[in-house]
UniProtKB/TrEMBL annotation:
<dbReference type="InterPro" id="IPR025525">
    <property type="entry name" value="hAT-like_transposase_RNase-H"/>
</dbReference>
<dbReference type="Pfam" id="PF05699">
    <property type="entry name" value="Dimer_Tnp_hAT"/>
</dbReference>
<protein>
    <recommendedName>
        <fullName>hAT-like transposase RNase-H fold domain-containing protein</fullName>
    </recommendedName>
</protein>
<feature type="domain" description="hAT-like transposase RNase-H fold">
    <location>
        <begin position="326"/>
        <end position="423"/>
    </location>
</feature>
<dbReference type="GO" id="GO:0046983">
    <property type="term" value="F:protein dimerization activity"/>
</dbReference>
<dbReference type="InterPro" id="IPR011989">
    <property type="entry name" value="ARM-like"/>
</dbReference>
<feature type="compositionally biased region" description="Acidic residues">
    <location>
        <begin position="451"/>
        <end position="515"/>
    </location>
</feature>
<dbReference type="Pfam" id="PF14372">
    <property type="entry name" value="hAT-like_RNase-H"/>
</dbReference>
<feature type="domain" description="HAT C-terminal dimerisation">
    <location>
        <begin position="552"/>
        <end position="634"/>
    </location>
</feature>
<feature type="region of interest" description="Disordered">
    <location>
        <begin position="440"/>
        <end position="522"/>
    </location>
</feature>
<dbReference type="GO" id="GO:0003677">
    <property type="term" value="F:DNA binding"/>
</dbReference>
<dbReference type="InterPro" id="IPR012337">
    <property type="entry name" value="RNaseH-like_sf"/>
</dbReference>
<dbReference type="InterPro" id="IPR008906">
    <property type="entry name" value="HATC_C_dom"/>
</dbReference>
<dbReference type="InterPro" id="IPR016024">
    <property type="entry name" value="ARM-type_fold"/>
</dbReference>
């Protein structure tokens, strides 16, 4: 942890404005005094580790992993002059580590081997950076890097049987190869391995592209992926929460007095840390002598706490409406996420420290990537909400400063018209709609879905994990955008090792009891949308009368929007209006039933990635659908 802290200044220069910008003197000093000696230590440890046939020396493997992280951060943007002559040494050591990896899916990896895999993953990330950014120093190493990467990608035939970390290593090896292809001698170096690349990467990619092309062009089905909203929130929160050490959290627990339990759900951390900030603002720690015996956070740590409380507090306001409303059909996501975007932008404008500004920018960057991917899905669902129709989308686009946003409203409307035309041309509107059984509000709240039963055939139904699509760590996401900020996956892998072993984990029964109490409190409070400034501005914006048109879709869009009602249920409304809009009601049922978040209620606030059991993933579609309809999945 000391090494990572010392190397941390490198993270502030991950995106230098000029390619030939000189390396800051501070980084040169860190390199000369610390990193250069670490290279020789790394070499000796690699020799020792590779002569050990068992994975028992955890401390040695952990040290290798930490040193590899330090070396990666040190070359991710700049190339320190003292480190460039040593590239060949530690790169060859990393190649030796990668060559030692086993891809035997039938063997359960030990803790030591998992650390070796993490070191290998970090090595591939470093290779990708060297090839794409530091060719001047790495050209002589590229043939060896290619040879090592090709040994790894040949195991891609078994990728479905491998663990997530091993699978990630194969993916990163492909990434290194793709970067090599972009340089001058890349094709010459890869030509001897082209047949292997055809079988392992190119042909599978072409097959997937042909499938998408067939759906999009031949059948005229627009295919897009759906990413989990709860995963987005989890990643955004985890990035800020990672900066809290176990000691800081323990000190806060003692002085604030929130109990012995530590929660894995970020909604409880928001309230606890906000309480600490309120106590500090009211100067309670200096007024009462009882706090003199406790360790209190430093000024720098208070900045981190206040940053978390402000940024994640904005997310929590929206998350309550998204995940705890009890009727989370897809139409409610657009206006709530738009509100979150506005909140974060305002917080960024009012940033009072570099730390706050950096974290706010990162969260907005992550949010904008999700927003761009999901805009068409969410906006289309919003248009099919009779409280909004096209008015909210047009209002949002008119307020957005980005010039491309203005055309998005037309894109959404064109998509909806084409979708309506395809439904109208088929016999789908002639099939009867199954009646939707009414459920009480409590049951809806517990299950968190208000959608229909059938899948929308315009949409690729396999809901993807947002984290997987961007890569399982922050570096992969950053490298898709260019060199970005520090990743958080490895922090997840190592988080809070320094916490006391005796600290109790959060008890699930007490969590559910606390959730029930919180639900009772929420039922008593007023509509939270009254506090959303951007949404209230929309309500004032909406108001003029519309003309009625002949076509079904035009008739729906030209009718006045409904008066705002927080408890409005879109699917019920479309079922009742089905006789008036026979085709459009079918479209609405399929769009509104798309599950935007795989987790609802209390489970949407988890900070740890939750993998479904293997037997659930392997279920046939009919069996999985039967389990969902019978609610048997709640017991899994």
């Amino acid at each position: 942890m000391v090494l990572l802290t010392v190397v941390k200044p490198f993270q502030y220069f991950l995106q230098p404005k000029l390619v030939k910008e000189p390396v800051p003197q501070q980084l040169e000093s860190i390199t000369n005094e610390i990193l250069v000696p670490l290279v020789s230590v790394f070499h000796r440890l690699v020799d020792k580790a590779l002569t050990t046939h068992e994975w028992g020396e955890l401390e040695m493997e952990k040290t290798l992993h930490i040193i590899s992280k330090c070396l990666y951060f040190s070359v991710k943007s700049h190339m320190p002059s003292a480190l460039s002559p040593l590239l060949g040494s530690f790169c060859r050591d990393m190649i030796r580590i990668l060559d030692s990896l086993s891809f035997d899916w039938s063997v359960t990896p030990s803790d030591g081997y998992l650390l070796r895999l993490k070191t290998g993953k970090r090595s591939l990330l470093l290779f990708g950076t060297l090839v794409s950014r530091h060719r001047k120093y790495s050209d002589k190493l590229v043939p060896e890097i290619v040879k090592c990467s090709m040994k790894i990608v040949k195991h891609s035939s078994n990728i479905s049987k491998l663990g997530s970390l091993t699978e990630r290593i194969i993916s990163l090896a492909f990434d290194v190869i793709s970067r090599v292809m972009e340089i001058g001698p890349g094709w010459r170096l890869l030509s001897p391995h082209f047949s292997l690349l055809l079988d392992s990467a190119i042909f599978p990619a072409l097959a997937l592209n042909e499938r998408v092309h067939f759906l999009q062009v031949v059948i005229c089905v627009p295919v897009f992926l759906v990413y989990c909203c709860a995963d987005l929130f989890r990643l955004m929160v985890h990035h800020v929460f990672n900066d809290f050490s176990g000691k800081l959290l323990e000190d806060l627990r003692m002085i604030v007095g929130w109990g012995k339990c530590s929660s894995e759900n970020w909604n409880l951390w928001v309230s606890n840390l906000q309480r600490a900030v309120d106590m500090k603002n009211e100067d309670e720690f200096s007024k009462d002598e009882i706090y003199d015996d406790y360790d209190k956070p430093s000024d720098e740590e208070w900045v981190k706490i206040e940053t978390f409380a402000r940024l994640v507090g904005c997310m929590y306001k929206v998350a309550v409406e998204l995940f705890e409303g009890g009727y989370s059909t897809s139409n409610v996501y657009f206006y709530l996420l738009a509100e979150l975007k506005v909140m974060l932008e305002k917080e960024l404008e009012g940033a009072d420290s570099d730390y706050f500004r950096c974290n706010a920018k990162w969260m907005l960057k992550r949010f904008d990537k999700y927003w761009d991917h999901m805009f068409l899905v969410l906006a289309t669902a919003s248009v099919l909400d009779p409280r909004f129709k096209m008015k909210y989308l047009e209002f949002y686009c008119s307020k957005n400063k980005v010039c491309d946003e203005a055309s998005k409203a037309e894109t959404v409307l064109d998509y909806l018209r084409s979708l309506y035309a395809r439904y109208a041309a088929s016999d789908i509107c002639q099939k009867p709609i199954c009646s939707v059984a009414k459920v009480d509000s409590k049951e809806e709240g517990e299950n968190g879905d208000g959608g229909g039963e059938e899948d929308h055939d315009e949409i690729q139904d396999g809901e993807e994990d947002y984290d997987e699509e961007q890569g399982e760590n922050e570096e992969d996401y950053d490298e898709e955008l260019g060199e970005g900020e520090e990743d958080c996956e490895d922090d997840e892998e190592e988080e809070y090792d320094e916490e006391e072993d005796g600290e109790e984990k959060y008890d699930s029964d007490s969590s559910e009891e606390a959730e029930r109490e919180a639900r009772k409190t929420r039922e008593k409070k007023t509509d939270a949308c009254k506090d959303f400034a951007f949404f209230q501005e929309f309500l004032k914006f909406e108001g003029s009368a519309r003309e009625f048109g002949e076509p079904e879709l035009d008739c729906y869009l030209r009718e006045p929007v409904m008066e705002w009602n927080k408890d409005f249920k879109a699917l019920d409304w479309w079922r009742e209006e089905g006789h008036k809009y026979p085709v459009l009601s079918r479209v609405s049922r399929d769009i509104l039933s798309i599950p935007i978040s795989r987790a609802t209620s209390y489970y949407a606030y988890g900070m740890d990635r939750r993998e479904p059991p293997a037997f659930v993933v392997s279920l046939e579609a009919e069996v999985a659908n039967a389990m969902m309809c019978s609610k048997k999945w709640l017991r899994l």
